[in-house]
Design a protein that fits this description.
Radius of gyration of chain A: 21 Å
Helix content of chain B: 25-40%
Structural class of chain B: alpha+beta
CATH superfamily of the largest domain in chain B: ATP-grasp fold, B domain
Strand order of the largest sheet of chain A: 1-2-3-4
Oligomer: heterodimer
Distance between the termini of chain A: 53 Å
Number of helices of chain A: 1
Number of domains of chain B: 5
Strand order of the largest sheet of chain B: 14-13-10-11-12-15-22-20
Number of helices of chain B: 16
Largest sheet of chain B: 8 strands, antiparallel
Structural class of chain A: mainly beta
CATH class of the largest domain in chain A: Mainly Beta
Distance between the termini of chain B: 52 Å
Largest sheet of chain A: 4 strands, antiparallel
Radius of gyration of chain B: 23 Å
Shape of chain A: elongated
Shape of chain B: globular
CATH superfamily of the largest domain in chain A: RNA polymerase II/Efflux pump adaptor protein, barrel-sandwich hybrid domain
Strand content of chain B: 15-25%
CATH class of the largest domain in chain B: Alpha Beta
Number of strands of chain A: 12
Number of strands of chain B: 24
CATH topology of the largest domain in chain A: OB fold (Dihydrolipoamide Acetyltransferase, E2P)
Order of helices and strands of chain A: EEEEHEEEEEEEE
Strand content of chain A: over 45%
Chain lengths: 137, 504
């Protein structure tokens, strides 16, 4: 709906709509959203934190390749699995070095946004001590 | 309809596609007095094409292999719907010779070139062989049968990095990867083979030299029912991300009259050699004033509207008329057909530009396109429809025309700013950044433009004072359902709502 509001002695107008707890706004050529705390929390719990070794699905899609087995050593930045969504492939990589602690999906699985796919147990070894192993893929 | 229809009259046409192109075809049919049969997948009932088509037939579940790529399901659907012809749109089965052949066998007119033409030109390998025989300029590469990853890696090394690996049967950026070193070969070649298999049903790939500062220029060609082939000038599509086009324009700002003439001749030559009928596109790379024939797309192109805008033609109608054996472009001939002004198309993708382009799906809220002179909107979804993750992220196209390129750019920026799409995130902020970039404005951009200038996700801007005020006003009015109390005079920090730049 269009809402008029006072701004700097003039009347401005914003297009606004509440869709499932997210408030969508368009004003002066830009679109942005306001999220309720409840909505935000729900989203935050879905997406993985930084550098925790947790790999969550960034989008709904299909698992098309898994490079690693449980217990495998992985380097930071190394590809763990590949998923396909909207006809494009996305490679999901480890954000920390360590070993694969859990693998929570199988080849061909259709997964939802935010689903936990794998977890890397960060290694305690110093970066410099890491042995660069030949890429097994 | 005219009584002296030469051969095959079409009174009902089936559409083997979805989204905005299905709408585009339905519109053309409506104008020609032809009824339509939409062949759709199970989830695609909440779409604009579904609401517009005369008849709708469900051909299978969501996965494309069981619906939009299923040849038999499409043929059976077309026959059950009483159609005499099938328009494949673009993507899906549009470049599938087996589908064209199956249509003919079933007594259906395939709106497009013959299966034979598709086999010759659509398969990149045989297309190259034909070009070689004709002495047309090609990029160095390998298109052999040996698909062993080790062998392909060696070939890549021999050609010299960077090289590009791509699907032999495909287009549209799927199954394409750039290899910069031997170390990347295995992972990326296998990935290209998988994408190729899933998108086109064949894992065959080929390799060629990657031109690293080339422009993507393509020529629209058209073969009419009498066998005459003409070209309808050029488009430039250098703005690509991961080999998927984002912004296209007609005509190219990069061609001299001499280059335009030469490239146009090559385009017509190869199409003619394959006895091309209908709309097709001959793609080139242009680097240092040298051009190389890249591939031929044996179908209507996503970016066909920019050609229509500068030439004043209707390519979809022309395709259908040609399928009926009728003459096309009758008001003009190839000598007087000349482009006027400048046209730009932007593809709107459902993705989050502040999160590196992660696909965005969900229920569409308000959708508003600002109409006006020289503005055109091709869209397949409206308020209340759901964008699913099963299909392409392109949800609509915005096309503008103006007298000069600069004015067309200005118009596009304004139109994008005034476009409202709620419910899914879109690449609109990203498109505006691109259109405002000096390299784009100067027209010197190459296919590496995005990689060079936009490799990082856009950073979310701060809310302006106006936007904050708008947010408060809106929250006071509608944001706060009973459970949310907002004191409009209180500081935003106290609000249970927080601004997020289209963040997930």
């Amino acid at each position: 709906m269009k809402i008029q509001f006072p701004f700097e002695h003039l009347t401005a107008e914003v297009q606004a709509q509440n869709i499932k707890g997210t408030l969508w706004l368009h004003v002066n050529g830009r679109t942005f959203v306001y999220e309720s705390e409840a909505q935000k929390k729900r989203q935050r719990s879905k997406s993985g934190g930084a550098s925790t070794g947790l790999i969550n699905s960034p989008m709904p899609g299909k698992i098309t390749k898994i490079f690693k087995k449980l217990g495998d050593e992985v380097k930071a930045g190394e590809a763990i699995l590949v998923m396909e969504a909207m006809k494009m492939e996305y490679t999901l990589k480890a954000d920390v070095a360590g070993s694969l602690k859990s693998l929570d999906c199988q080849l061909g699985d259709q997964v939802a946004l935010g689903k936990k796919l794998a977890q890397v147990q960060p290694s305690t070894v110093e970066k410099s001590a890491e042995k660069p192993v030949e890429k097994p893929v | 309809m005219a009584e002296h229809l030469k051969s095959k009259s079409i009174t009902r046409l089936a559409i083997a596609n979805r989204g905005e192109v299905a709408v585009r075809i339905i519109r053309a049919c409506e104008e020609l007095g032809i009824e339509t049969v939409l062949l759709h997948s199970e989830p695609d009932t909440g779409t604009r094409a579904y609401r517009m088509a005369t008849k709708k037939i469900c051909i299978g579940p969501a996965p494309t292999s069981e619906s939009y790529l299923n040849i038999q399901a499409n043929i059976q659907g077309a026959i059950a719907g009483g159609a005499q012809a099938v328009h494949p749109g673009f993507g899906f089965l549009s470049e599938n010779a087996d589908f064209a052949e199956a249509c003919e066998k079933a007594g259906l007119i395939f709106v497009g070139p013959s299966a034979k033409s598709i086999r010759i030109l659509g398969d990149k390998v045989s297309c190259k062989e034909l070009a070689k025989r004709l002495g047309l300029p090609l990029v160095p590469g390998y298109e052999g049968e040996n698909q062993e990853v080790d062998h392909l890696s060696q070939v890549a090394e021999k050609i010299g990095f960077p090289v590009i690996v791509k699907a032999a049967a495909g287009g549209g950026g799927r199954g394409m990867k750039v290899l910069n070193s031997r170390a990347e070969c295995r992972e990326l070649i296998e990935s290209a083979q998988r994408e190729s298999l899933s998108a086109f049903g064949s894992s065959k790939v080929f390799i060629e030299k990657y031109l690293n500062r080339a422009k993507h220029i393509e020529f629209q060609v058209f073969g009419d029912a009498t066998g005459r082939v003409i070209h309808l000038y050029d488009r430039e599509c250098s703005v690509q991300r991961r080999h998927q086009k984002i912004i296209e324009e007609a005509t190219s700002p990069s061609l001299t009259p001499e280059l335009r003439r030469k490239m146009g001749e090559v385009a017509v030559q190869i199409a003619q050699a394959a006895q091309y009928k209908g709309a097709g596109t001959v793609e080139f790379l242009l680097q240092d004033d040298e051009f190389y024939l890249l591939e031929v797309n044996t179908r209507l192109q996503v970016e066909h509207p920019v050609t229509e805008e500068v030439l004043g033609v209707d390519l979809v109608k022309a395709q259908i008329m040609t399928a009926m054996g009728e003459p096309v472009f009758t008001d003009v001939n190839s000598l007087t057909l000349s482009p006027r002004g400048h046209s730009i198309e932007c593809r709107l993708y459902a993705e989050n530009p502040y999160l590196g382009g992660v696909p965005s799906t969900g229920l569409l809220g308000l959708v508003e396109f600002p109409e006006g002179p020289g503005r055109r909107f091709e869209y397949g979804f409206e308020e209340g429809d759901t964008i699913t993750s099963y299909y392409d992220p392109m949800i609509s196209k915005v096309i503008v025309w103006d007298e000069t390129r600069l004015r067309a750019i200005q118009k596009m920026i304004r139109v994008l700013k005034d476009t409202v799409i709620f419910g899914v995130h879109t690449n609109i902020p990203y498109l505006i950044e691109i259109l405002s970039h000096p390299e784009f404005i100067s027209g010197t951009m190459t296919t590496r433009f995005i990689e060079k200038n936009f490799s990082n996700p856009l950073s979310a801007p701060d809310l302006s004072a106006l936007e904050k005020a708008a947010g408060l006003a809106a929250l006071a009015k509608i944001g706060g359902s009973a459970s949310v109390s907002v004191n409009s005079s209180a500081a935003t920090e106290k609000s249970p709502w927080q601004a997020a730049w289209r963040g997930i």
